What we know:
The structure holds 2 protein chains of 2 kinds.
Chain A: H1 2-29, H2 35-54, H3 58-75, H4 83-101, H5 112-124, H6 140-145, H7 149-160, E1 164-171, H8 172-177, H9 183-193, E2 194-201, H10 209-214, E3 224-231, H11 235-242, E4 249-252, H12 257-270, H13 273-290, H14 292-297, H15 301-304, H16 323-347, H17 357-378, E5 380-382, H18 384-387, H19 390-401, E6 405-410, E7 415-417, H20 418-439, H21 443-448, E8 455-464, E9 467-474, H22 481-490, H23 496-500, H24 504-509, H25 532-541, E10 545-551, E11 555-563, E12 568-576, E13 579-584, E14 588-595, E15 603-606, E16 609-614, E17 617-623, H26 624-628, E18 633-635, E19 642-644, H27 647-651, H28 656-668, E20 672-680, E21 683-689, E22 691-699, E23 713-718, E24 724-728, H29 730-736, H30 746-753, E25 761-768, E26 774-778, E27 782-789, E28 793-796, E29 799-804, E30 807-812, E31 829-835, E32 843-846, E33 848-856, E34 869-875, E35 878-883, H31 885-892, H32 894-897, E36 909-913, H33 917-929, E37 933-937, H34 940-949, E38 954-957, H35 966-975, E39 984-988, H36 993-1002, E40 1006-1009, H37 1013-1031
Parallel strand pairs in A: 6-8, 13-24, 17-21, 26-35, 30-32, 36-37, 36-38, 38-39, 39-40
Antiparallel strand pairs in A: 1-3, 1-4, 2-3, 5-7, 8-9, 9-11, 10-11, 12-13, 12-22, 14-20, 15-16, 16-17, 18-19, 20-21, 23-24, 25-26, 25-33, 27-31, 28-29, 29-30, 31-32, 34-35
Chain B: E1 2-8, E2 11-16, E3 20-25, E4 39-45, E5 48-53, H1 55-58, E6 71-75, E7 84-89, E8 91-97, E9 103-104, H2 112-117, E10 118-124, E11 127-132
Parallel strand pairs in B: 2-11, 5-7
Antiparallel strand pairs in B: 1-2, 1-8, 3-6, 4-5, 6-7, 9-10, 10-11
Amino acid sequence: xxxxxxxxxxxxxxxxxxxxxxxxxxxxxxxxxxxxxxxxxxxxxxxxxxxxxxxxxxxxxxxxxxxxxxxxxxxxxxxxxxxxxxxxxxxxxxxxxxxxxxxxxxxxxxxxxxxxxxxxxxxxxxxxxxxxxxxxxxxxxxxxxxxxxxxxxxxxxxxxxxxxxxxxxxxxxxxxxxxxxxxxxxxxxxxxxxxxxxxxxxxxxxxxxxxxxxxxxxxxxxxxxxxxxxxxxxxxxxxxxxxxxxxxxxxxxxxxxxxxxxxxxxxxxxxxxxxxxxxxxxxxxxxxxxxxxxxxxxxxxxxxxxxxxxxxxxxxxxxxxxxxxxxxxxxxxxxxxxxxxxxxxxxxxxxxxxxxxxxxxxxxxxxxxxxxxxxxxxxxxxxxxxxxxxxxxxxxxxxxxxxxxxxxxxxxxxxxxxxxxxxxxxxxxxxxxxxxxxxxxxxxxxxxxxxxxxxxxxxxxxxxxxxxxxxxxxxxxxxxxxxxxxxxxxxxxxxxxxxxxxxxxxxxxxxxxxxxxxxxxxxxxxxxxxxxxxxxxxxxxxxxxxxxxxxxxxxxxxxxxxxxxxxxxxxxxxxxxxxxxxxxxxxxxxxxxxxxxxxxxxxxxxxxxxxxxxxxxxxxxxxxxxxxxxxxxxxxxxxxxxxxxxxxxxxxxxxxxxxxxxxxxxxxxxxxxxxxxxxxxxxxxxxxxxxxxxxxxxxxxxxxxxxxxxxxxxxxxxxxxxxxxxxxxxxxxxxxxxxxxxxxxxxxxxxxxxxxxxxxxxxxxxxxxxxxxxxxxxxxxxxxxxxxxxxxxxxxxxxxxxxxxxxxxxxxxxxxxxxxxxxxxxxxxxxxxxxxxxxxxxxxxxxxxxxxxxxxxxxxxxxxxxxxxxxxxxxxxxxxxxxxxxxxxxxxxxxxxxxxxxxxxxxxxxxxxxxxxxxxxxxxxxxxxxxxxxxxxxxxxxxxxxxxxxxxxxxxxxxxxxxxxxxxxxxxxxxxxxxxxxxxxxxxxxxxxxxxxxxxxxxxxxxxxxxxxxxxxxxxxxxxxxxxxxxx
Amino acid sequence: xxxxxxxxxxxxxxxxxxxxxxxxxxxxxxxxxxxxxxxxxxxxxxxxxxxxxxxxxxxxxxxxxxxxxxxxxxxxxxxxxxxxxxxxxxxxxxxxxxxxxxxxxxxxxxxxxxxxxxxxxxxxxxxxxxxxxxxxxxxxxx
Lengths: 1032, 142
């Protein structure tokens, strides 16, 4: 029984796929269906009918049969589909879909009204004089075989192409259920080598679907089924191919074959020419598309190799796996990750003591991450799965609203975790409906404002950073913030004074408030009682966020920002009052350490609210302990006794002078707190905790329903030591601590972000070569790291190459080009660092990968100077030499890397504005290497000072800088008529189209990524060239 | 009926063994700030997160509800509920074969919460056993 249900599940999945295919084709092509598409539709419906027949689903078969008939007429050209037919066909398809989805009750559905509607199409067709699938005149033969007219037509077609007709007789229990892959796969195998014409179930012995469900392998009850198949294969080969015994298959010789085809050609001769042409069309499509011969061409070996050819049939390179198995795998993989974390932690101290342990651990570490990653991949599905239903929805909406709408779908192949895909349907439907209903204007209005009659809705999925964005844009009227204001006021969602202090973005965010709807009248399309608040909640439940961009009169874009996968996130583990919590790393912008007594960084008070001055801005501070209702404690500075920190209790009573004494008390205290700067959309606040324990890959487990009411947790995780920890929900903390944000616009936040001392964090890959020195390269220059064996390395002349599958990669041992310790011998196992941002990749061959660290780089460029190195840093008490890959490659491969190609004839002066010493040094070396004179400044202010006296040809500037950032610098330069024409190139680590657009909007001429030498040099040359041309 | 008997706050309780998944000692649980007071915390049972309830608090044994306990009974997950549930006890006793005829509803003068969640009292030799039902008891009531 269970097994049967599994088969039925397979049937449902398969049939759903078919009806969806039909729907999307109908919607996409409408009445202009090509022959290929009609064939696809016909075949899809036919497959549904065939498999449903096997399960005794008589109503589905009956409906599918009528539909198939109709499509058959379309296929052979005797019926021309009209617009009004489409609605009926879609409705019939919907009914079929419903019946498939609710297979158990499908037998109770009355399909006759739908069938009548379908037959009407056939009847009112003006070509009713001639039917392709009229029962063949000599049909008694087929009648005997109980094959219907469509089947006959298919058989005749097939026979004309030299097919054999087989009848397979199977016993359900003995043959089919025993067939270990299940009936659906059995059918698929048949379809791969031939065509299934019909399935006949002898249900005289059983009652129908109900009984099918109840058949058990042990029971005596069994019933026979007959399959009609045509194929080019000989009987024996066919039996081998589908994996059943020859005895069960019988070849049927159609004696009337000759006569039938004669008949039909005679008949054609009698008909007007028009119909003859139609018949030819249908024949030609047959041979292209419908002919199983062309399918079996893919499996060429079948015919040529006699004997056991079954294995040679190439099925799809994929197998079906039940989702529950994947979920279990995912869970286990996640457990494995935890196990690995624990193992690594415990064995960390023994690494030196046990010889050989370190590489094993490294290997396990690597494998575990890989396994987990691959399993995550198995759950990835294209967003197309949800996007597919929108053409239909848009079609319906445009009819009911009398609007003309084009839907453009982009990025349907972008993949997301299955659970996210499943959760996207409703929010997206709502947003699409909204865009169509509220966003787009009526066609006449569009014309009067100078737009095309047809409005466009764009649904676009794309990757950005570590997330997937889905944009729903319309070119409609945009959002009217005044209307939003008045509605909010009307509905009491905000007070007038609140509204007055709100900026554009904040007003837009009002539409996410429960109970908000701006439509002047509710329409059937979008006014269904759910609002944007539901969309927002749903998206947030998936771990995503929603952003709105609107331009009045031009349109609106709603952006959903979604995580790629749900299950594992990078978190920061923090501790407060002995409780450990995980904070999703994506929420944390930076960590500020506050020492008592530090005048530069201290927590100040506005009444009893704590704030932190961070780069000239006030940031609200929330103590995690307060949020959670845990008493705050402090260690008394004199007695060392831990007591309850009552500071909050009396600060409200403090007079200013007393406040000073309070801070004095805290001055004596050696207490240090850490403030996580949390960013949620446009809102930022500081979350004060006692300690930050580190960063960990955490597996997110669902929050027990009992804890949902707490409001400030989003899940549970299991830490490396096996204990559970709660994952904090930043959004929830904002709610619980009642932070009222007057949200700042993105822009001002960005600007503020580049305050003082923004040292950029760099990710370095640490490794060792044959000597004892520790080296590093910036991770942004690394494409990947591969393991190689010394066997795979070969010398060609004096150059070393690593074999990679079919290809090879030149590799170098950096120690050969640097003045460092080295040994000539090649260890058995080594690693190749494959660089990116270079046009002639050369792999860096290293002995050992040590670590991957994130640090604020304090680069020392004076102590160790040699070509091929940028400088040195101290990490964990060790000296680390940071490599300059371009210089190194120049030493190793002067032919490709000589800077000749970029050398310029006359001296040009550039101004390089960059605060981070490492990047400054890299860019400086690139530019001077190419022959430019380079002046440097570490911020916008310095740059402006230099520009007063010096004459430069172009400026290369970072954006995030202290004192004056790149945006401000550009603004100032553009305002100054003397220098406003200077080309300015932004080089930044803020990648992504969005940032790029902002950069270009702000006035930069070019926007480039840091460290990409060739791009930079090209762009500089372009910029100077362009300038020269405009000047001359 | 097979009943797992256990001690809590000096009293003898029992629960039908059909509901019981396992017994754990020395559980290291993580308290959950802001959770309702019936919830003691969460713990990791071989990768599954179990919500631990404080039965003493549910039954309104005020002075015993703060006591530190580290033995617990984990219940089988109920159908349609993704949550694993357990509760802290003082210690487990034997599994006894309980004759249903020994059981009767709790007396009319039982404390309110006991009356609500203890559906039957078994008259064992020398001691009364309070039989708790799985249904409805372990969830948030506030």
